[in-house]
Amino acid sequence: MSDRLILLTVLVLSSTLVASTTAREPLNAPATSSGVNTDASNPPLLVNISRRPHTVEVNLTAAVARLSLQPGVTSEVFAYNGHVPGPTLDVREGDHVVIHFKNNLPEATTVHWHGIHLPFESDGSPFHPIQPGETHDYAFTVRSGTAGTYWYHPHPDRRTGFAIGKGLFGAIVVHAADDPLPPMNEKLLILSDNRFLTDGTIDFPDPASHHGGVDEENGREGPLLFVNGQMMPTISIRSGEIQRWRVINASAGRIFRIALAGRTMLQVGTDGGLFERPLEVKDLILATGERAEVLVKGGAVGTRTLLQNLPYDRYSPNTRPVDWNVTRDLLTLETTSQSPSAPMVIPTSLRKVVPLDTTKVTAVRTIIFGQGIINGHTMDMARVDVSTHVGATEIWEITNVVGMDHPFHLHGFQFQVLDRDGVKEPYLAWKDMLNIPKHSTARIVVRYDDYPGKWMFHCHILDHEDHGMMGVLEVKP
Ligand SMILES: [Cu+2]
Fold this sequence. Notes:
The protein has helices at 2-7, 13-16, 160-165, 210-218, 462-466, and strands spanning 10-12, 55-70, 73-80, 86-92, 96-104, 112-114, 135-141, 148-153, 170-175, 186-194, 224-227, 234-237, 242-249, 256-260, 265-270, 273-281, 284-286, 291-297, 304-309, 328-335, 345-347, 363-369, 386-389, 393-400, 406-410, 415-420, 423-424, 433-436, 440-447, 453-459, 470-476. It is mostly beta strands. It contains 5 helices and 31 strands.
């Protein structure tokens, strides 16, 4: 690692990451000792029960539980191993992973390993439901070069939004065999929102009611915002310390636009792992299902900075929430009174992302997002919408023709964004989520290296997905 750092041109975060001083940050207030907030602790890890090298074997059970998601109120939830969010699947590139899954829910479910490149039979799509009381082993080998932040959640036919809203989501962290970033404190930030009745019941209105109709059209959102299942938690950081935050948008409909008030962040990665080089950002938009890795730096001793959700208008005017343009606080970053950390050097070059060869493209697909439909259809599991074969490289041109954003997700295969509305993507990255803003077009390139099967592509606003805004990509051997 030291050789690498000597060879690279380096940047010291203190000169670039912290763009403003505390004096210019009205939201930075002296730290208090009120102790009201709890620490935004990372969720527990799934325990590896295998003794074999390079093997991760875990037990995961989905079941009804009663948990306190808000202070003083309990709610009936669906939980993985009794936790919301579920415990984190922590693996390394090259690991063979086996998940012994048990469905103790009163309804069919699946576990979809969002973003992971794996065999069709382990994708946890609606093609492979696990009935109540049944068990199923999911198995895959973590592909080299895919270190990054992923997540798992149910993907049953027409019930995904309900199941995630009830509490079924958890993180997957894939560590690199050779990580270019120096070791540092890592935090998971799993963002979600929810809505409750006064007795604590999670609010899923009758689909035939006015509120049910708004949820179906808009994508169900809730007024309460959570980080790792906690409201307004605190993350402690030493002055000058750099932390690596892995942020996951696990909400059913809300697109987050996060910012560290008055500061910049250094984004180092997205869905499929690290960028080629860090990118300084004032804020970043995370569509449903999308992830980001950012580096943040502790300010002066005794200061606090808010991580906020800034307004982002993904909505159609018909169903736009009245408070859509209100900035909301997510968590407090609190600099401790400990002595400052020693300076840390972040490489300016992270890894090589090899561009997919667009001269080898075998097909160009046109995907039209309407409101709740793709290419004029709703989902039919007996229909194949796109047929291709292993080894093909394709460009998908995805156009959103309506006045509401629709985040695109492709199962099984990471893609690269070529351009958005004709503007070349400024950096190379591996993605499995791409927000397609209202009345816009994006082009992606994807190669189906292996794993034949029937793969889903869909809008990740879960109410849209559940009502059929989804298609089937068949990759033939
Ligand atoms: Cu949609």
